[in-house]
Structure formats: structure tokens, C-alpha cells
Amino acid sequence: MAILKLFSTFFSNVKTMRRAIQRSKKGDQIKLSPKVYRESIQFDKDVLISASGDEETVMEGIFIIPNSVQVTLQNVTISPTSQIYVEGNLKLENCRLIGSKTDTLLSVNKGTINLEKCELTNAKEVAVALLNNSKAYFKNCIFHSNGKMQVLLQDSEAIVEQCEFTNTKHGFWLKNQSKLYSDKNHFHQHYGTQIIVDHSSFEDFGSIFERGDGNGIYGLNQSVIALQNSTVRYHKLPQIWIEESTFKGQHCMIQHGKESGIYFKDLTEASLSYCEVSHHQKENLLISNKSRVNIEQCHIHSGNEIGIKIKEQSIVNFNETIIKYHNLSQVYITDHSICSMSQCIIKDGSYIGLFIDKKGSASLVKSEISKHESSAFTLIDAELNIFECEIMENKGNGILAIEKSIVDIELSKFFDNYMPHIACKTNVIITLSQSELFNGKSIIAVNKSELFIFETKFYNCDQVQIEVSDHSTAIFEHCQIFNGGSYGIKITRNSISNFINSHISHHALAQIVVNDSSLIINNSELVDGKRNGLLIQNHSEVFIRDSYIAKHLKPQIWLDYESTVDLDGVQMTDGHQSDLHAQNRSAIYVSDSIIRNDKYRYNVQAMNFSKIKLKKTVIENKLGEVFYSENNSLITTTMDEVDS
């Protein structure tokens, strides 16, 4: 290979680059001496131009590489007076491009450029513009202090490896189906968005995006963005903003943003796996407007406001993800959005675990929701499904559901919550099956709420275990309610309850209280109470059929103030005081039952204008008389004359 050397004192006939290029042959190398070469060149052949690199060699002028021409420059400083225009192939090695005299350093139109160990700086607008199916490869380069952006891609492709981009408005701007592959780069301190992807694709592996005044990455208009092992941090706007596009993040760190961490909106489809999203001033993750997101084995934590906000008919699936340490709701689901969680942990929140409203819906499977300063769940006009979950150690309710919410719970445990495990108000429907609620008040349902409870245990509560009030209804089937420090169940203010094949025992106060309400007990047991089995008051109505009531220390059934009870096929035994006690215009109707009591003289008592009618009923005790009535009260059996 011939080498043409340009010196200032010798070879005066070839001391310009243009003359050297003209004399060169294919494969020749032109060696520049250190100086400033002020000339403009349109290359018409393949050429290699290099400088020694010991002292600065400057090329200043206008440079054009036409189609089918390959130019290689090594160890030179280029200060173009207008953009370097490339339609062919340009390779720069260990070069410095200074753009103080031009808007654009490199403009590539259907061409190819390859830059290694280069510095590109001080372009007034753009360091590199890749247009019309151009291709670029950058490795170990530094881009800094360029006006509007470092690299513009329009319908073009670029590969960038181990480069640094800093101190410009934008890093990369991709348009019109461009493609960018980034590997272990450093983007920092841009005063706009660092990466803009518009109807294009961007793939990154192992880069750091940090300390920008805008977004870290902004994708829009059906773009495709994939990050792996990437770090995004310290941005003043949402660190990753994706709209109407596709996003995939794996093993990424998105942390310490001044606003939101990730914002998916406008029909975006996204997935996050093995990522950590944390320490943002606003939401760690915001998902809106019919977006679809899958989150797997991620750690989302330590946000100053809401952890994850899902709104406007979006759908989000979580799997094996930890969500914790947020100052407001850890997960907020609203506006007809849907959220599903499997094997997740939501814990240690400064407010609510999951807040669901405005027709939002959440489904949780095999998950733990614990240690919140307020409720684990709060629902307003929303829907919640829970399967094989644990809700525990929250300072508020396990579930607070109000205003037409619907809750379905199966095979779950509620315990050690400071307020009722389940509280529902105003037209709420709760279905609870095969679950356990213990170490805390179990349920309070008020204002036209409905409870459907099957094969569930309630136990170990110092307060009333279950309250049903204000026109609410409750059905308990195959349930166990036991070991309470107060009443077992209170049914008040015109409510209705139904107990079927259930067991109620071991309460410090009356096992069931019915006040101005209705109760049906069928094929159930009330046993071992420290006071009454049933305390029925204030215009209440109770029907008991095929049930067993025994071993209460106070009258087993006590009626007061114009209440009524019907017993059919009931067995009452081993009471410590009377079995039936009616007072103040109350009435008891008994048929086909057995009432035995060996510890108290009067099994059946009627007082103050009350009446008790017994039909086909056995009443026995070993202490003497079985009936007692006073003050215009009446007790009749089938052997007596019955007044109308």
C-alpha cells in the first residue's frame, strides 16, 4: 500500500489533501502532518486519511462523501464549515468533530458511518443526522454540548456501544421506523428528554440513563422499546414515558425520579420482569387509558405518593411481585380498570394497600397484604376477588367496602387487623367461603349490605365477632363462630340473617343478639355460652328449626319488648337458668321440641303481657315446676285451653 505524506515544506506539489486524493490509487493511505487543512473536498474515490496523533491535525471545510465512495479518517480533528454530507461510507477512528461553525456535524443520507473512539461536540443543532435508510455504528464515542440533539434517526438504523452522551437537549430522537440498538452506554445530564422514540424501535442492554431535566426515555406512536439490565434514574419528568407503543423491561433499575417512575398510557402494551422501581416523588408506576401491562418478579417500593396507579380501563397483571413502603395507596385501581395479582406481597404501607374505586376490579391469588397504617383494601363502587390470600396486621380494616362494591373471598385468612377484618357499608355484596377470620373483629355490615358466607370460621375476638345492621342481610351456611370475648353476632336495625348448618359457641356475652331485626336458624347449634344463647329485643322476629341450644349460663333464649320467636323441632338442654324467657309483650311459639333443664326451677318464663304457646313439646326439669308467668302473661300447652 502506497503512503502519500503531506508536509508543509516538502512535496509542495501534493501539500493539499485534494491533490493527494487525486494522485492516490485505490488502497492508498494519505498521511497528514500536524497542521490546519482549510479546504473543501468532495471525495470521488475510496480513501484512507490519517494523522500521527502526536499533535493536532485539523481538517476545516466542507466534506462530501458521494454514493459508492468509502472514506476513512484516523486521528484527525474535523471542524466542518458545513455539515459533513455522507451518501457513501464514512469511517472515523479516534477523531474529534467540532461543530461550532455548523448546525450539523454529520448528515447521512442513504449512507453508512462507522465511528470508534471519537468525540462529537459543539454542533449548533445536531451532532449526527441519519436520514433515508442510513446506517451507523458508534463505539467508545463521546457526544457532548451539541445544541438540540446528539443523534437524529429518520427511517434509519444505528448501533451504539459503550458511548457517552451528555450536556445537550436530547440524546437520540428516532422517527419514521428507525431502529436503535444500544449496549452499555451512558446518557446523562440532557436538559430535555434523553431518548425519544417516535414510530420506531429502541433496544438497550446495560446502559445508564440518568440526571436529565426531561424524561429518560419517551416512546410514542406505535414504537417498540426493550430494555435489559438498564438503569434509569434521577430525571425531573417521568423517567420512562410510553404511549401507544410496546415496551419490555427485564432486570432494570428505575429509581430516584423527581416525578413518576414509569408512565404507560394510550393503549400501550408492556411487560416488566425482574425489575426494581423505587424512590419516586410521584407514582412509581402509572398506567392509563386502556393500556395492558404484565409485571413479573419485580420489586416496587419506597414511593412518596401512590405506588402503582391503574386508571382509564387499563389491565395490569402482577406475578410474584413485592410492593411496599409507599406513603399513599400502594396500588390504586380506578375508572373501570382491572388488576390481577398472583403470589404477590403488598406490605408495610403508610396508608392503604389496594384502593379500588369507580368500577375498578382487582383479583388476588395466593398473595399477602399486611402491615398497612390503614386498611389492606378499600373499595368504593368496585369489585374485589380474593383466593388463598392472607390479610393481616393492618392498622385499619382488612377490607373496607362501600357504595355498591362486590367482594368475593375464598380459602383466605384474615387475622391481627386492628379494625374489623371486613367492613362493608351501603349496598355492598360480600361472598365469603372456606376462609378463616380470627384475632380481631370479623365482619361489620351496614346500610343495605348483603353477606353470603359458607364454610367459614370466625374466632378469637375480644369484640363482637359479626355485626349486621341497617337493613342488611346475611346468610351463614356451614360456618363456625366461637371463642369471642363479647357477643358472637349482632343483628340490628331492621336487618335479616339466616344461619344454616352452623355452630356458634363460647362467647362471653350473648351468642346472638337480634334487635329490631329478623333471624332464621336452621339445623344449627348454639352451645357453651357464658350468657344467653339468643338475646332478642325490640320488635324482632326469630324462627329456629331443627337446631340444638345448650349449656348457657343465662336464659338460653331471652325475648324483650314485643319480639317473637318460633321454635320447631328444637332441642334445648343443660341451661343454667331458664330456657325460654319472654317479657314486655313478647311471644314464643314452640312445636315438636324438647326442653330439658336440671339446673333451674322454671324452664319457661313469661312476664309483663307476654305469651308462650307450646305444642307437641316435652318440657322437663328435676327441680319442680317448669312454667312461671306474671303480670298478665300467659303460657299454654296443647293440654290447656288456648285463648284467641
In angstroms, what is the radius of gyration?
40 Å
CA distance, first residue to last residue: 130 Å
Low-confidence stretches: 7-13, 640-644
**What percentage of the residues does DSSP assign to strands (E)?**
over 45%
What structural class do helix, strand and pairing data support? Answer: mainly beta
**Largest sheet at a glance?**
29 strands, parallel
- State the share of residues found in helices, binned by percent: under 10%
- The backbone outline, from C-alpha atoms, is rod-shaped
Number of strands: 83
Characterize the structure shown.
It is a single chain. Among the domains are: 1-168; 532-644, no CATH class. The protein has one helix and 83 strands. The protein is rod-shaped, with a radius of gyration of 40 Å. Helix 1 links the parallel strand 1 (3-6) and strand 2. The strands form three sheets. The protein has a 29-stranded parallel sheet, with helices on one face. The chain is mainly beta and 644 residues long. The termini are far apart.
